[in-house]
Amino acid sequence: MKKILALPAVVLATSVLLAACGNNEAATDKAETPAAQSENQTSTETTDVADQEAAGSDYTTAVDGYRTFAIEQIDEFVKQTEKFTDAVKAGDLETAKSLYAPARMYYERIEPVAEALGDLDPNIDARDGDVEAADWRGFHRIEKALWEDKTTEGMTDFADTLLSDAKLLRAKVETMDIDASLMVTGAVELLNEVSSSKVTGEEERYSHTDLYDFAANVEGAREIYNLLKDDLAAKDKDLNQQIADRFDALEKELAPFKDGDGYVSYEKLKDEDVKKLSQNLDALAEPLSNMGQVLGV
Amino acid sequence: MTEQKKDSLKKPLSRREMLKLTGVAGLGLLLGGGGASGLMALGRKKSPASAVEQASPNDKGLPFYGKHQAGIITPAQDFICFAAFDVTAGSADDLRRLFKNWTAAAAPMAAGEMIGEHNTTLNTPPTDTGEAAGLTPSRTTLTFGVGPSLFDGRFGLQGRKPKGLRDLPAFAGDALDPQWCGGDLCVQVCADDMQVAFHAIRNLARIARGHAVLRWTQEGFQRTGRADPAGGTPRNLLGFKDGTGNPDTTDAVLMDQTVWAQPADGPGWMAGGSYMAVRRVRMRVEVWDRSTLKDQEATFGRHRDSGAPLGSRGEFDPVDLKAKSADGQPVIPATSHLRLAKGDGSQQILRRSYSYSSGLDAKTGQLDAGLLFISYQRDLEKQFIPIQKRLAKNDKLNEYTVHTGSAVFACFPGIMNGGYIGDTLI
């Protein structure tokens, strides 16, 4: 299940209410704090300008692009989930196992959207212990049966519920408010997800298919970045270049772990591989978290 | 902060739970509740009225800029946070940029100020992580150095490598673990407050992302100034005073002789800098605690209580290595730490060590505790290495210690106002 630490989320959620107050405080702060510029901060010199322009900035094209992307992904997600749940219900253990991780990738790419839709996320993607045992259902419930119990027995109901949850997600996404701010925070959230559970192998604890989720999360973040990069480049060329370079670096680190259409088992990673992936991820997520500041969203 | 919010900081929340909380927190913010005023106060200087009684009179912090880097002959603060980094940046330009960015963060941190301008903009991550907001400078010093591995081909620095800067030779009994060895760069942060020290390392690591990654870290402590207002020589975790024989840091001539690299020593960029040796020394405290006091004192060559050399009364009494007891044996045993460390007195180093405690050794259930040994010297080969060779070979203390980490760094000369860390090198 997707988790968010409470404080940043609360601060974000209340930022609108406090916008006026925040601006005043920022002015006070600047008067008292000597300008110190780390690389991340040099990229934000233009922020005051960006703040002023924010009202005038128009991200309609990017937002529309993202909605299209999200719907495409969810359409495919429903299709692939249906194949997966069919195999589960047919008792075809090996086929079910082979369809599990690829189907999930469509979901993982648009996680911020799914997260924003309340209970659907835990229903689809909760891990053991994330919810009360009696409420546990979705992909990871079936994952446990397939890999640990090595059976599809007793999974028919879970398969049916999973598919209906997936279809509900498809229906709800049409009505959802997507704005540039959701995209920007979503891109960082995707990487935070990787950082906190995928790179550590905690997400797919029975199937060890964590690298599928890893790759999909990064692809989802890259899609958001791609949609916003022209706007970003116009406001801060260096930051834009840095983010692009670090996406490349991370993808390069991930490439050796590709295996056909998928990825190798998490168990094949050595400690040093995990460390390197994690460090490349942090190196990307840090400048990415400044994208919103520059864009003024 | 309300109990509810305190709890909410500890555990991750699902988005649904978060949305429920948002209403509550939003109300608090509008009413100017604790959480909000706390956030708004970030970056403001402490008002005199709120300063704690014990706050140091040196409230503006120690100077960051100057002829020598702070943190070398500066009287040791209560805590250390030490970090070694590996550079991942590919070019000299990137490395220079990292040093500039670190300078821009280090100078305000030494002054107890926040990094950067964006600390109250609500919809972006703050430029300072905030845990030191409102705290005094706490005599923070940040000391930067470069390891031998930085002078490989990556940055075109091969020709600028100091002759004596190379990994230490293998000493007898070393049990080095790569996870506590080496590093392209090091940062020694010392402060009278652990939170302030940690804040510095955390922010430097954050700023380094994409250019350098942490290789190893070690935190350390001494007795605090509050626990020892008289400021006596600190004791190590074996219970003995450690550092009695240190040279007088107020003697500028002596410091030039023992600590500061001189222009004629070469290379020019190191003039005014100092070479640092770091050893992570685990103490077998369980074994030590089963040794008799007599054995313990014979091991160090000092009385535990007073710190005086064996056979003397006062801590700073002259060390008489010739003294013999009634049975003709040296009063200060030949294999004692004191005698071997002192040698013939021709090599001196400035020790700046801290104790560490890093939880349990999971394998044995014993404490992983000991000494983060740090020394500064003008020349590693002439000073540190011969001393450590003697100790490694014969020191009775070796029964109770094991060296698990090792690194050397060339710590830059001081940074002049307007300059940046390492600007004499790159």
Offer a few descriptive terms:
heterodimer, A: 297 residues, mainly alpha, 2 strands, 70% helix, B: 426 residues, alpha+beta, nine-stranded antiparallel beta sheet, globular, disordered N terminus
Report on this model:
The complex is a heterodimer of chains A (297) and B (426). With 297 residues, chain A is mostly helical. Chain A contains 15 helices and 2 strands. Chain A has helices spanning 6-14, 19-32, 39-42, 47-54, 60-89, 93-109, 111-115, 120-125, 139-149, 156-173, 180-198, 210-235, 237-254, 271-288, 291-295; strands at 258-259, 262-263. Chain A has a two-stranded antiparallel ribbon. In chain A, a hairpin with a 2-residue loop joins strand 1 (258-259) and strand 2. In chain A, helix 5 runs antiparallel to helix 6 (93-109), helix 6 runs antiparallel to helix 9 and helix 12 (210-235) runs antiparallel to helix 13. The longest helix of chain A is centred in the first third of the chain and has 30 residues, at 60-89. Chain A is globular. The model of chain A is unreliable at 2-56 (pLDDT under 50). Chain B has 426 residues and is α+β, with helices and mostly antiparallel strands. Helices cover 25% and strands 18% of the residues of chain B. Chain B contains 10 helices and 9 strands. Chain B has helices at residues 3-10, 15-30, 34-40, 92-110, 194-208, 252-258, 285-288, 293-300, 337-342, 380-394, and strands at 79-87, 141-146, 185-191, 212-221, 274-283, 350-351, 354-361, 366-377, 401-411. In chain B, strands 1, 2, 3, 4, 5, 6, 7, 8 and 9 form a 9-stranded antiparallel sheet that branches. In chain B, helix 2 packs across helix 3 and helix 4 (92-110) runs antiparallel to helix 5 (194-208). The radius of gyration of chain B is 24 Å and the shape is globular. The model of chain B is unreliable at 1-54 (pLDDT under 50). Chains A and B meet through helix 1, helix 2, helix 3 and helix 14 of A and helix 1, helix 2, helix 3 and helix 4 of B.
